[in-house]
Automatic annotation (TrEMBL):
InterPro entries listed in its UniProt record: 6-PGluconate_DH-like_C_sf (IPR008927), ACT-like_dom_sf (IPR045865), ACT_dom (IPR002912), NAD(P)-bd_dom_sf (IPR036291), PDH_C (IPR046825), PDH_N (IPR046826), Preph/Arog_dehydrog (IPR050812), Prephen_DH (IPR003099)
Coiled coil region boundaries: 233-260
Catalysed conversion reaction: prephenate + NAD(+) = 3-(4-hydroxyphenyl)pyruvate + CO2 + NADH
EC identifiers of the protein: 1.3.1.12
Name of this chain's protein: Prephenate dehydrogenase
Keywords linked to the UniProt accession: Amino-acid biosynthesis, Aromatic amino acid biosynthesis, Coiled coil, NAD, Oxidoreductase, Tyrosine biosynthesis
A single MF term (Gene Ontology): NAD+ binding
Organism: Psychrobacillus psychrotolerans
Pathway(s) annotated for this protein in UniProt: Amino-acid biosynthesis; L-tyrosine biosynthesis; (4-hydroxyphenyl)pyruvate from prephenate (NAD(+) route): step 1/1
Assigned protein family: Belongs to the prephenate/arogenate dehydrogenase family.
Enzyme class, spelled out: oxidoreductase
ACT domain boundaries: 296-366
Domain Prephenate/arogenate dehydrogenase: 3-291
Amino acid sequence: MQQNVFIIGLGLIGGSLALSLKRNKDVKIIGYDANGQTLKTAKRISVIDEIATNLEESSAFADVIVFATPVSETIRLMKELPKWQLKKQVIITDTGSTKKEIMKVAISLKEQGITFIGGHPMAGSHKSGVEAARPILFENAYYLLTPFEDETDERVQVLINLLQVTKAKVVQVGAEEHDHMTAVVSHFPHLVAASLVHQLSFENEQYPFTKQLAAGGFRDLTRIASANPIVWRDITLQNRQELTDQLKAWTNEMIKLQELLSYADSSDIENYFNVAKKVRDDLPINTQGAMFSVFDLYVDVPDYPGVISEITGYLAKDNISITNLRIVETREDIFGILVISFQSTNDRAKAVECIANNTTFETYIS
Ligand SMILES: NC(=O)c1ccc[n+]([C@@H]2O[C@H](COP(=O)([O-])OP(=O)(O)OC[C@H]3O[C@@H](n4cnc5c(N)ncnc54)[C@H](O)[C@@H]3O)[C@@H](O)[C@H]2O)c1
Ligand SMILES: O=C(O)C(=O)CC1(C(=O)O)C=CC(O)C=C1
């Protein structure tokens, strides 16, 4: 039976969800975006099947409505929702990175007999907009749902069944717990990344060459500072309390570091890095999701003209698609490091084999 899914907000996440759900031939995607150009692009590149020109009217055809808008807009739209024409059995969900404030607003929907099940796919990127959307974005990632405690299993199961095609790992959590955990692994790291970039910018006034030296380490650590400021403004505002708590804990950690520096005890310093390395190395980095949404491969390449097109040529011949390519200019010897990004671990593994079969270049996975 055909299921009509109405996605509101067709950026990175709404677009990726649309592309992913469309793989189920029984699902039809109706899309809406406040930006008319985005809406047209979404239709032109087949992210959606049908354009919705009017929120109130298009909602009447939807079995499932997904808000994939910045979280403040999601709350504003949720408050308008009871005025829209809705099917009796419609399920409303969202993709927002915060859940507590959204579930508070959902209480009034529930009181009006409307089913709302909060959602948050733990995968994404610093890129935004419909052109960045990818059907495989959610594969192997956690997809958190925050239904009300007394929501019927049958209603939650309808949403879980719909999401099955994304190949995400759907897990149910409470909204408060959600906002605490995501503050730790996602929201607070974004604040830290932004603050490091501010620090560089300040430093750069006196030492302009510093920026040129920002190579792999700084770039890896601050990639997420390139994300959409509106999305992150809203997340920060909605999860302000948890972020304040994280900032306090981080400040205490910095005081510990200050002490380590002032005592200059080499074994304590080494131990500090050892503990961090162990915890970091034990993270489940080979799965997609909160940890990685791109899969990088490092290739040691000799410096001769045409070497990059040679490698991309081998990959193209083996039908391996790449999502990004860059050269890390950290060394001045005859080899450079080419960093190639792939959409999945599988593509990256195939690339390792392909490069080994065709060249003598060393490859590394960070
Ligand atoms: N970017 C990530 O990594 C990520 C990951 C998981 C969840 N999320 C959450 O998903 C949501 C969308 O994020 P994104 O990264 O796709 O952002 P995005 O900037 O790529 O897309 C947001 C889209 O929403 C549209 N929009 C804004 N207000 C609207 C409105 N009132 N009506 C209709 N459309 C509107 C914008 O025009 C834009 O196309 C956010 O709530 C975000 O917190 C983001
Ligand atoms: O991979 C990234 O660039 C992301 O920022 C993805 C990320 C994260 O912080 O991990 C961002 C926001 C989310 O709500 C979920 C995932």
